[in-house]
Amino acid sequence: MKMKSKKKVLLCITGSIAAYKSPEIIRILKSKGFEVKALMSKNACNFITPLTIQTLTGQDLPPYYDSNNTEYSMHHINLAKWADVILVAPATADIISKLTCGDAGNLITSTILASKAKTLIAPAMNKNMWDSQSVQGNLRVLNERDIKCIAPGIGSQACGDYGSGNMASPNSVINSIINDNSKEYSFFLNKKVLITAGPTQEKIDPVRYISNYSSGKMGYALAEVMYDYGAQVTVITGPSHERRQSGINYIDVVSAKEMHDITVEHSVDYDVFIAAAAVADYSPIDTYHKKIKKDGDFITLKLKQNIDILASITTKYPNRINVGFAAETNIIDDEIMAKLKKKKCDILIANEVGGGKGFNSNYNKATIYTKNEKTGIGFDSKINIAKKIISFISKYYSC
Ligand code: CTP
């Protein structure tokens, strides 16, 4: 990842339980060569101690306003000029509202108002607060003023609710700072991404199923890369043992039918859909509640074709960004172009499977097809293949 010239980060910590992630943000920033200073709101001091933050940053002054200290008289201006980047993490609904109004009533808001530094905010709040028209309206205003929002993740919340509003992970926040000028970041920031990943399992009886060798690695890698570029990512995943990244919403399914139904349910307001799952093409017509007993040399299973998830989504939402995969042992251009047309997607990524590539491997060899062009992206680790695909998508749709 290319580091920008920006080196001095002012971290503003406001009063949310997510403040427990702030020391980790400081630690990672410093390990990546950034100089860090911090400010804390009064409420943030109720969640973590100013001493922790001052010790980690190594700054001279404590990270909060001290009215008895004369060194504070021009502190907001000094900090405003010092910072290359201002990062508000966690950013509460309250600070977001104050920034929208141009409030200068405390050290954090007055510093941001006085600064020309690139400013990013990492919101953290309850899902209903996050979804509220007030917060979303404020974020739109801030976005127009080039104060970028690092999308929160979806998950269980401190209050017991489940939904959007959890502050992005420290790594994701830092990647946003590093990438904030990249085309990919500008493209994916706050986009809603839906990905199918992994295999599906089609039940025969309580002990048997039909499936394939897919591990889910490619879909999970794509999810992580887009999450790092600021997208809100939901992965609808068949059985997979891959590591899960906090902040990404994973929904577990087993069969093709379940994957289809959940994908359709979540497709209402997505911006980007990537069908990376290796969906079983057929499933047994009859499933048995008891184990099928051995009886004779042969057995016949009647299978029916599963519904095509990608085609269902592209038919319903032809004008959104729809990307498919084609897993092939032998890639033939005409066949891929026919699949692209049949599946009605703009981009189809053909990957070779078998021989250590594709299924259940950390490596992949892929070629990206659109109706007009074919771009080879070579043999590489799945995470690098994911980055190349994401970069291609952002370029393709920015043109
Ligand atoms: N796909 C899907 N639902 C299915 C089958 C496939 O969404 N029931 C999606 C896959 O996730 C992939 C694309 O369609 O993005 C192509 O999958 P692939 O297995 O290569 O093609 P099939 O349509 O299954 O055709 P075939 O196996 O005959 O090549």
In short:
With 399 residues, this protein is an alpha/beta fold. The protein has helices at residues 22-31, 44-47, 50-57, 75-82, 93-101, 107-114, 127-131, 133-144, 170-179, 183-188, 217-228, 256-266, 309-316, 333-343, 382-398, and strands at residues 8-13, 35-40, 85-91, 118-123, 147-149, 153-156, 162-166, 192-197, 202-205, 208-210, 232-237, 249-252, 272-275, 282-284, 303-305, 321-328, 347-352, 363-369, 374-381.
Architecture overview:
It is a single chain. With 399 residues, the protein is an alpha/beta fold. The chain has two domains: 174 residues, Rossmann fold, CATH 3.40.50; 207 residues, Rossmann fold (3-Layer(aba) Sandwich), CATH 3.40.50.10300. Helix 1 packs across helix 9 and helix 4 packs across helix 6. It starts with 7 loop residues before the first strand and ends with a helix. The N terminus is likely disordered. Bound molecules: cytidine-5'-triphosphate.
CATH fold-level name of the largest domain: Rossmann fold
Q: What's the CATH architecture name of the largest domain?
A: 3-Layer(aba) Sandwich
Please estimate the helix content: 25-40%
The assembly state of the depicted protein chains is single chain
Overall pLDDT, averaged? 92
Strands side by side in the biggest sheet: 12-11-8-13-16-17-18-19
Quick one: how many beta strands?
A: 19
User: N- to C-terminal separation?
Assistant: 24 Å
Strand content: 15-25%
Q: Which ligands are bound?
A: cytidine-5'-triphosphate
Structural class: alpha/beta
Number of domains: 2
